Amino acid sequence: MATRQRGRPRAFDRDAALDSATRLFWERGYEATSVADLTRAMGIGTPSLYAAFGDKRALFREAVAGYAGRYGDFTRRAMEEEPTARAAAARLLREAAAEYTEPGRPRGCLVITAATNCSPASAEVEEELRAIRNGNVEAFERKIQHDVDEGVLPADADARVLARLLGAVLQGLSQQARDGASRADLEAVADTVMRAWPAETR
């Protein structure tokens, strides 16, 4: 007769569990992902999920933060590391084409797709992701406006419109990737967008 072992429950790998949750939210979206779905994917029980992460909404917030650092950081790097807005935009779009179609993980961008057309009960989550997307557009606008002010871009270049264009193309690339577009397809879109971008004056 087997003897039941006593003691604390077996510990789990919190980082691995969080990554599993992130990928599930990324694939299905916030509202379509249930707590039962999460515990199955993470390999833990419901009490462990609540003890380690809080409720579903708190877990999602942590997943978004982890996504930004692990999968979505190419946006920040392009803006900070490239010397001009044009170079940053070109790098950002081409890296998005690669990241959004990377084999072995969900397609597109979690921040763009995980909380759209939500019910009123999830309005706060939807607004949080909208704020992240709008913050990115504002960062694009600041970098573009800096180049206009410094004479790197023509004086009549509209930083706000160009930033909105960049945001719209990123959102479109994400959806196209989810619809099955290849990396080459998205890179061709990126190249076309950059041909319409104002040329640098110096």
Report on the structure:
It is a single chain. With 202 residues, the chain is mostly helical. It has ten helices and no strands. Helix 8 packs across helix 9 (159-178). The chain is elongated and about 60 Å long.
The portion of residues assigned to helices is 55-70%
Overall mean pLDDT stands at 92
Task: Based on Cα principal axes, name the global outline.
Answer: elongated
**Total beta strand runs:** 0
- What are the low-pLDDT stretches, counting only 5+ consecutive residues below 50? 1-5
Radius of gyration: 20 Å
User: What is the CA–CA distance across the termini?
Assistant: 82 Å
**What structural category characterises the helix and strand content?**
mainly alpha
Q: What is the helix/strand order?
A: HHHHHHHHHH
Count of runs of 4 or more consecutive helical residues: 10
Regarding quaternary structure, how should these chains be classified? single chain
Percent of residues in β-strands: under 5%
> Main beta sheet: strand number and arrangement?
none
Brief overview, please?
The protein is mainly α and 202 residues long. It has helices at residues 14-28, 35-42, 46-53, 56-70, 74-81, 85-99, 110-113, 123-149, 159-178, 183-195. It is elongated and about 60 Å long.
